[in-house]
Design brief:
Helix content: 25-40%
Shape: globular
Largest sheet: 10 strands, mixed
Mean pLDDT: 84
InterPro entries: Carboh/pur_kinase_PfkB_CS, PfkB_dom, Ribokinase-like
Pfam families: PfkB
GO molecular function, one term: kinase activity
Distance between the termini: 23 Å
Keywords: Kinase, Metal-binding, Transferase
Protein name: Carbohydrate kinase PfkB domain-containing protein
Number of helices: 16
Length: about 425
Amino acid sequence: MENSAQRRLERVSGHLLSPIEVNNGLSQVLIKSGQRNNEEEEGDPVVIGGMVLDIHATPSLPLNPRTTTPGKVHYVLGGVARNIAECMSKLGTKPYMISALGNDMAGKLLLEHWNSASLSTEGIMKHQGIKTPTICNIFDTEGELAAAVASVEAVEKFLTSSWIQQSKQNIFSAPVMMVDANLSLPALKASCQLAAESNTPVWFEPVSVAKSRRIVSVVKYVAFASPNEDELIAMANALSHENMFRQIERDTTRRGSVESLFQFLKPAILVLLEKGIKIVAVTLGADGVFLCSKGPNLVRFSLDRTKKYGFSGQLYDNVASSCPSSRFSGALQIERSSHLFSVHFPALPASVVRLTGAGDCLVGGTLASLCSGLDIMQSIAVGIAAAKFAVEGEVNVPSEFSLDTITDDARSIYSAAKILFHQSML
């Protein structure tokens, strides 16, 4: 059967690629084909996944087992998909959220905040029979997660294929759809199939090592994936149907250079790319991000349908001028003669308070930037800048972002980005 990418007429940087060019591998990312009626209203990005109440417990002294420890306990609005969507909204994009909440205290807190942000609740199921997902996180004195207990069964039980189907028009008109791996396999597959019907690019957020393996059922639909190192290894093992990749031993690998870390992860990255994922963003915590693609269009990739107004428009103007696309124009010639292209984006030093929202804000910042019209390289820089904001606060998503600070940090990150590796994958 003819590959879906081969059936499309794809557009990259304003240049229409013929089916022959697509077959030759010159277009490596899923972007909108422009098949919709021109009079149809442009949609908002769709985010599907969990909305969770997080209980954060932070000790004042080192934790001791089998006894209580003095400290502070906070209720924090969380959930991977919810955090990503909120971050996007704080950066000027209005995501359409598909999720499920109960009528209990946790559900009311989450829904009240969503209404206060003037975000659509149409896609959020509300039912008294639902026990709103709740997670209790226990941190150490350094802000690192020491242990956690999650009660999130409602996401898989109530966020069903039939409920998601009711928002299919939103998915059809969306510039991009983000799904988190908290979804059940049937719901995950149904979401991705709906996106495929309208060529809506899919971003897969793995959530955890265990749930990251759900990529196997939907990999053919996924354009973007954002695993950390451990999730990357788990996904590569699941996709290759054998445990040929081992987890990182941080005490040894971390003592080496960024280049040595990339060489360690490269075989696993290649598995994801060879299975059809177009862009892999490996999140590395304090070491930044490896942005990797199979093919020639990583440098110039941007979404086809974008909106520029308000904060989002200002973000686009500021970052586009501060982080010029010409920064990587010399890499285009390199890309034309290679099949693997990777760039390392460093993180910036931060005064760390809490790490739980960093990865979600990285993805949210990247998606919001793509939806404003920035390219993937500029967007990743903004995502890392948003993550820095997140780790310096008590909550998962900052109450607001400073446009000037985001712009300055994105410029520093973008300027320090370095091409790591390019070679034929044959």
